[in-house]
Amino acid sequence: IDSDFDVTLDTKTLDGILPDVVITQPTNGLTTNALTTISGTANDNVKVSSVTIRINRISDNFDFNGTSWTTTSPIWLDATLYTSSWTYSDADLSWVDSSSYTVIAKAKDTSDNWTTNYATNTFTYDVTAPTSAVVNPADGSTISSLGTISGTAQDNVSVNNVAVVVKRLSDDQYWTGSAWGTGETWVSATGTTIWEYTGIASG
């Protein structure tokens, strides 16, 4: 008795390694006045098959759904995937001034392994300019010496630093931080919401 057998062997790689995902833009803790593209990297020992992100507005816990902000959450959006990086942008994505947001990203590989440690970055959107005022010397005052210039500053989010420019009207010279010279020069003050600058040479 003769018998013919066709044998097919199906090999499959056992992959228990999870993909890795990172958010590079926005950086964690960033305060920015412009953000059109969210981006990052994704890597796997075999191949990343997809990256999805969640964009949450912290103030009201709304998620962006690809068109608008909604109370339904969580909402995961498909990012555009490249060899080892990804991006997400949407013309309908708009930010609210002075609001903070959390971006969360997760990745899946071709073995259907999902990232368990999600990438999470938080940022603040701020398009409101700070305001400042000089308290000393008073506007229009006549003084014999000036040891300290001081004032206040305010912002809807936070004041990071204050700089001042001092111009001598008699010869249009500017204080450079060590001497009087030509060309407008900003010198750093100490303090933020309450600030001061000392060390201007008389003359």
Short overview:
The chain is mainly β. It has strands at residues 20-25, 30-32, 38-43, 48-57, 62-64, 69-70, 77-78, 80-81, 85-88, 99-109, 119-125, 131-136, 148-154, 163-164, 167-168, 173-175, 180-181, 187-188, 190-191, 194-198.
- Shape category: elongated
Order of helices and strands: EEEEEEEEEEEEEEEEEEEE
The DSSP helix count reads 0
Oligomeric description of these chains? single chain
Question: Major sheet, described briefly?
Answer: 7 strands, mixed
Rg calculated over all Cα atoms? 28 Å
The helix/strand class is: mainly beta
Write a structural description.
- With 203 residues, this protein is an all-beta fold.
- The protein has strands spanning 20-25, 30-32, 38-43, 48-57, 62-64, 69-70, 77-78, 80-81, 85-88, 99-109, 119-125, 131-136, 148-154, 163-164, 167-168, 173-175, 180-181, 187-188, 190-191, 194-198.
- The strands form five sheets. Strands 2, 4, 5, 6, 7, 10 and 11 form a seven-stranded mixed beta sheet that branches.
- Strand 16 (173-175) and strand 17 form a beta hairpin.
- The chain starts with 19 loop residues before the first strand and ends in a 5-residue tail after the last strand.
- The model has no long low-confidence stretch (mean pLDDT 92).
